[in-house]
Specification:
Shape of chain A: globular
Order of helices and strands of chain B: EEEEEEEEEEE
Shape of chain B: globular
Distance between the termini of chain B: 35 Å
Strand content of chain B: over 45%
Mean pLDDT of chain A: 95
Radius of gyration of chain B: 13 Å
Largest interface: A-B, 25 and 29 residues
Low-confidence stretches of chain B: none
Structural class of chain B: mainly beta
Strand content of chain A: over 45%
Number of strands of chain B: 11
Radius of gyration of chain A: 13 Å
Number of strands of chain A: 11
Distance between the termini of chain A: 40 Å
Number of helices of chain A: 0
Helix content of chain A: under 10%
Oligomer: heterodimer
Mean pLDDT of chain B: 93
Helix content of chain B: under 10%
């Protein structure tokens, strides 16, 4: 199956700092999503981004499909950004999401 | 309000007992999915369904069963054959596989 690797596995930031999370995948994909899982377990859709660049407030994401990676940028981090960030992909001709193991982010005051 | 509703939020299973987790969506999505999450891990696919009355096994289907009698509903049964059922279960739906998937709030299953 398709491999999805996220880095770093853990990240600690002070409030106001910026960060970049990376997702590498091993095959062509037709769907790539970034999620934020909050402490209650809810998976929040951040981006649907199989290619290109999108921005939503302090968050932005870029996927370079030909090089098989995606980046999630968090600017001016806040304590409410804490949680686990997952990258998930659907390979071409596939149907279900394959998840990475996530990046656990802690933003301190 | 459109969305995906999972119930119950918490569920306890006795040894040898089957339990059923509910998932209902009113997004008019064709495809529905069940995932399992263990502590500190990403999600793994149990079953998925692209259309009513059809479903396929995912990576970890052993000990689970599903049905898809209605477009809106995709219940998951955790059978007594599933020896390690304690986990967080998440249901999702989408128009098709290459379209964004939306998730419910999950059900936490524990063994008594």
């Amino acid at each position: 199956g398709i491999q999805v690797e996220q880095s770093p596995p853990d990240l600690i930031l002070q409030e106001g700092a910026n960060s970049t999370l990376r997702c590498n995948f091993s095959d062509s994909v037709n769907n790539l999503q970034w999620f934020h899982q909050n402490p209650w377990g809810q998976l929040i859709n951040l981006f649907y981004i199989p290619s290109g660049t999108k921005q939503n407030g302090r968050l932005s994401a870029t996927t370079v499909a030909t090089e098989r990676y995606s980046l999630l940028y968090i600017s001016s981090s806040q304590t409410t950004d804490s949680g686990v960030y997952f990258c998930a992909v659907v390979r071409d001709s596939g149907y279900a999401l394959n998840f990475g193991k996530g990046t656990s982010l802690l933003v301190t005051p | 309000d459109g969305g995906i509703t999972q119930s119950p939020k918490y569920l306890f299973r006795k040894e040898g007992q089957n339990v059923t987790l509910s998932c209902e969506q009113n997004l008019n999505h064709d495809a529905m999915y069940w995932y399992r999450q263990d502590p500190g891990q990403g999600l793994r696919l149990i079953y998925y369904s692209q259309i009513v009355n059809d479903f396929q096994k995912g990576d970890i289907a052993e000990g689970y069963s599903v049905s898809r009698e209605k477009k809106e509903s995709f219940p998951l049964t955790v059978t007594s054959a599933q020896k390690n059922p304690t986990a967080f279960y998440l249901c999702a739906s989408s128009y098709q596989g290459d379209q964004p998937q939306h998730f419910g709030d999950g059900t936490r299953l524990s063994i008594l």
